[in-house]
Design goal:
This protein has 58 residues and is an all-alpha fold. It has a domain of 40 residues. Helix content is 78%, strand content 0%. It contains two helices and no strands. The chain starts with a helix and ends with a helix.
Length: 58
């Protein structure tokens, strides 16, 4: 089974930085919009990835 290196790197970074990201999201001042920033970033990463795959013909 082949594991994509980028996916493995992202999973490792999430594992390492998850506590800091969780604390940043739930921190008190201006807390309401931070989860939306995280979701927007995730949507943008997926959109760019899909756009690149479509241009390559995969």
């Amino acid at each position: 089974m082949h594991i994509n290196r980028v996916l493995l790197l992202v999973m490792l970074l999430l594992f390492v930085f998850a506590p800091a990201i969780g604390h940043w999201i739930t921190e008190e001042p201006a807390r309401w919009y931070r989860p939306q920033i995280v979701w927007l970033g995730l949507i943008l990463v997926v959109a760019v990835s899909m756009y690149r795959d479509a241009r390559r013909g995969n």
